[in-house]
Amino acid sequence: MGLMPVLHALLGSIRVLVMLVSGPVFSDPALGSRIRVMAALLITWAAGPVGTGALSSSGDWDVASIVAAVGVEVMIGLSVGVGTSLVFAGILQLGDFIAIQGGLAAARAIDPASGTPSVAIGTALNTFAMLVFLVIGGHHEMIEGIAVSFETIPVGGALPEVGVFHEVARLGSVIFEVAFRFAAPVTVAIFVQNVVTGVLGRAMPQLNLLIVNLPLHAGMLFLIIGLGASDMLHVFKDVLEAWPSQVFSLVIGER
């Protein structure tokens, strides 16, 4: 029984660590494993779980109960981390959509977050969204939410209802929702430009559409992004500001 507080701290740190590894910002390779482990222990210690769940309610606990508790903490941390990352996956998908529309799908760069090559525009938009997320305090919201989760889902307690994880999985639709909604202006503008170029091609047969179209597509893409940068900033802010609270409300209940 004397080791029970240590066991609770270690189990709680697993929940926090999994959230840091799978969630946005904290999963960046610039943060080493040691920093994540130390941050998880510190957050767990500072949170001071008020509930101790199944492990403390029974006078004796065995290896099976500890393994089950570890699984619960991993599932909760993954639900929060992956759920919060979905909106950033949608922004990366947005970059793919508009890059294809603008004829820049071949322009790829190494994504610093994942270490894999991705469309350069998508990487730029994702980095921009990360900056907005940090400015509005989204990382603070995640830490606060995972700390509050110890009150509603105590360490060593049971998993939330299965419907909770189904709802988190349904949040995956936000990837296409964000991508289609933000890519719609670019799609419409390039469609209109294609119609105009087609009309000019019929009126001027000597016009080489294959040579003209690609610069026009790229120019139209950068023009729309430049003109809509301010509006995009406000839309990103609204989406990113509400998203962590929405994820936490599903996983741990209303805060």
What does this structure look like?
- With about 260 residues, the chain is mostly helical.
- The chain has one domain.
- Helix content is about 75%, strand content about 0%.
- The chain contains ten helices and two strands.
- It has a two-stranded antiparallel ribbon with strand order 1-2.
- The longest helix has about 40 residues.
- The protein starts with a helix and ends with a helix.
- The mean pLDDT is about 80.
Describe the secondary structure blueprint for this structure.
Blueprint: H1 4-22, H2 33-47, H3 53-57, H4 63-101, E1 108-110, E2 117-119, H5 120-135, H6 138-152, H7 162-170, H8 174-203, H9 209-227, H10 229-251
Antiparallel strand pairs: 1-2
**Strand order across the biggest sheet?**
1-2
**Which strand-content bin applies to the residues?**
under 5%
Look at the structure and give the mean pLDDT: 78
Give the total of domains: 1
| Helix and strand pattern | HHHHEEHHHHHH
Count of runs of 4 or more consecutive helical residues:
10
Backbone structural class: mainly alpha
